[in-house]
Amino acid sequence: MESDEDFMSVASSADDFLDTQASDDESLGEEFGDEFDGGFSKDKDIIATSRKPYEVDFKVLSPDDIDREQNQQINEVSSVLDLPPESSAILLRYGRWNREKLIESYMDHPEKTLEEAGLGTNFQGIPKTQVVPGFVCDICCEDGNDIETYAMRCGHRFCVDCYRHYLGQKIREEGEAARIECPGNGCNMIVDSKSLGLLVTNNLRERYHILLTRTYVDDKENLKWCPAPNCEYAVDCPIKQRDLHRIVPTVQCFCKHHFCFGCTLNDHQPAPCRLVRMWLKKCEDDSETANWISANTKECPRCHSTIEKNGGCNHMTCRKCKHEFCWMCMGLWSEHGTSWYNCSRYEEKSGSEARSAQAKSRASLERYLHYYNRYANHEQSAKLDKDLYLKTEKKMTSLQSQSGLSWIEVQFLDTASQALQQCRQTLKWTYAFAYYLARNNLTEIFEDNQKDLELAVENLSEMFEKPVPELANLKVDILDKTAYCNKRRVILLSDTAENLRNGEWSFNVDW
Amino acid sequence: MFAGKRLSKELLKLKEHLPPGISIAKSENLEEWQMDIRVLDENPLYQNQIYRLKFTFSSRYPIEPPEVQFIELPTTSETPRPIPIHPHIYSNGIICLDLLSSAGWSPVQTVESVCMSIQSMLTANTRDERPPGDSDFVSYNRRRPRDINFFYDDDNV
């Protein structure tokens, strides 16, 4: 019965494919073609195309690139609005770097925009430090005719020393840069970079600059810092939060770290961010403990106390409510008549509900464990990858001395080890992904791809563990297997990414 | 050093002239002062009461805000000082006031101006209540007021 249904659904969706292919434009047809093949006959095409379906456009930016980008926008706005660059910078930060909207709002209400951004409207005169006769500083209460003072355009004048202390406190202690206000009470004027440059030491100016760059990247949706420790690059990628249903945007930083642009976790293709979060949460919390309890214990049919049977006969007497029932069928013990200790009343109605609820829990637990064990296995192997990599390096050195191979010639081990790591990472997430997939004909193709990759990976892994003297002879084999693994990975990821983009997967959860 | 100079000047000025309803209770050193304040109008919530504020200064004062809170002296003492009832004052004396946070603080503020702000905060209040979650906050809070991230959601009181 079940297999009939499967067959029907395969047939009908195949029809759909043909229809779509006939009516749609050529490029879409081609994409469908690849996907429908499940990557058998057109493997070459997929690999040959420059951008694979699971890849996204992105650009890695160095701190200098980010600076350049910022300055370019600042200068642009500065020339359009005829404002000094340091003021344009404050305006842009206020408008979260949305140039068009900012220029528009400035054109409509220039004074209001300037006021709200914390710039004030008075652009006369060049702020400089000066000595003002009869001056008393409101911060330190010092007076004297030789005190160096400073005021921004708002006119709140303080001695340079206090200003410096104030800026130091804001930048160093509070990590503030983009929105440091005038020290004056209730004054919202933002301290601009030019004023800051006049007042603080190089050290502090550098820190200020770093903080500004940080807010720039944080403000822009298309920029994210590489999450690797001590990495100072950022990645520019056009994928928006709302696209994350259709795409898993893995990017690679200059520092070699692969991460997801959507959630900045480690690369988790093919599983989408939202499912990844659900999966991680599920693995963390004890929702499956509850399933274990219901799979391995029973509840007293009357008072619902949890009971685990750890031996003895089927005649149960609840310790709590003294209810007597049969462990096998959950029915009343008194209904058993004389067939004591040998329950054959499986079809009795009184126990059937309890039994089916338990069977459900048991099936759910088994299903979860099936995927979790495989997921955890690849995760564990991925952790061993680091050791593996170190071992590889050693192997490469000893291979060089034992077999007389050159450094270049032993690089294949490095390549193989990297391929292994990457494939395991992918495999790991295929299991989390599969946990949330509802079965249909697509999942079968998916599982085939998964199986192929897994087989290839285990094969390569086995070869890799061979003693050093044998490795030199296995070079061609290892190279072949490495290429094959990478190819299977590309096929699997292409297939899942295309289906995701086209909304073809059905899931057993809402996300 | 920075704080010391400024505080001695503030003290000098305060001793010359004290605003109505504000007096100095303790100012022997330059790390901690205590000030007594009372509400000037007829607000029935605070009639005939004097409240005591404790100011703690760091060496970075006035660049950094002082720590300010009410302290209680028992009714049996010579100078009884209760904690005023107010929707932004916890029963342990901690005050939730924007100008005392590093974001709301301006180095131009002084002990005098802080006292006056708190004075007017009491004057304007009509609600005979503590902040929501007062008992929990009072029993679990071990942090210093400056480390608490108050959420200044209500500018009306």
From TrEMBL, chain A:
<dbReference type="GO" id="GO:0008270">
    <property type="term" value="F:zinc ion binding"/>
</dbReference>
<dbReference type="InterPro" id="IPR031127">
    <property type="entry name" value="E3_UB_ligase_RBR"/>
</dbReference>
<dbReference type="InterPro" id="IPR045840">
    <property type="entry name" value="Ariadne"/>
</dbReference>
<dbReference type="InterPro" id="IPR002867">
    <property type="entry name" value="IBR_dom"/>
</dbReference>
<dbReference type="Pfam" id="PF19422">
    <property type="entry name" value="Ariadne"/>
</dbReference>
<dbReference type="Pfam" id="PF22191">
    <property type="entry name" value="IBR_1"/>
</dbReference>
<feature type="domain" description="RING-type">
    <location>
        <begin position="137"/>
        <end position="183"/>
    </location>
</feature>
<keyword id="KW-0833">Ubl conjugation pathway</keyword>
<dbReference type="InterPro" id="IPR048962">
    <property type="entry name" value="ARIH1-like_UBL"/>
</dbReference>
<feature type="domain" description="RING-type">
    <location>
        <begin position="133"/>
        <end position="347"/>
    </location>
</feature>
<keyword id="KW-0862">Zinc</keyword>
<protein>
    <recommendedName>
        <fullName>RBR-type E3 ubiquitin transferase</fullName>
        <ecNumber>2.3.2.31</ecNumber>
    </recommendedName>
</protein>
<keyword id="KW-0677">Repeat</keyword>
<feature type="compositionally biased region" description="Acidic residues">
    <location>
        <begin position="16"/>
        <end position="37"/>
    </location>
</feature>
<dbReference type="GO" id="GO:0061630">
    <property type="term" value="F:ubiquitin protein ligase activity"/>
</dbReference>
<dbReference type="InterPro" id="IPR017907">
    <property type="entry name" value="Znf_RING_CS"/>
</dbReference>
<keyword id="KW-0479">Metal-binding</keyword>
<dbReference type="InterPro" id="IPR013083">
    <property type="entry name" value="Znf_RING/FYVE/PHD"/>
</dbReference>
<keyword id="KW-0808">Transferase</keyword>
<keyword id="KW-0863">Zinc-finger</keyword>
<dbReference type="Pfam" id="PF21235">
    <property type="entry name" value="UBA_ARI1"/>
</dbReference>
<dbReference type="Pfam" id="PF01485">
    <property type="entry name" value="IBR"/>
</dbReference>
TrEMBL record, chain B:
<dbReference type="InterPro" id="IPR016135">
    <property type="entry name" value="UBQ-conjugating_enzyme/RWD"/>
</dbReference>
<feature type="domain" description="UBC core">
    <location>
        <begin position="2"/>
        <end position="157"/>
    </location>
</feature>
<protein>
    <submittedName>
        <fullName>Ubiquitin-conjugating enzyme/RWD-like protein</fullName>
    </submittedName>
</protein>
<dbReference type="Pfam" id="PF00179">
    <property type="entry name" value="UQ_con"/>
</dbReference>
<dbReference type="InterPro" id="IPR000608">
    <property type="entry name" value="UBC"/>
</dbReference>
<dbReference type="InterPro" id="IPR050113">
    <property type="entry name" value="Ub_conjugating_enzyme"/>
</dbReference>
<keyword id="KW-0833">Ubl conjugation pathway</keyword>
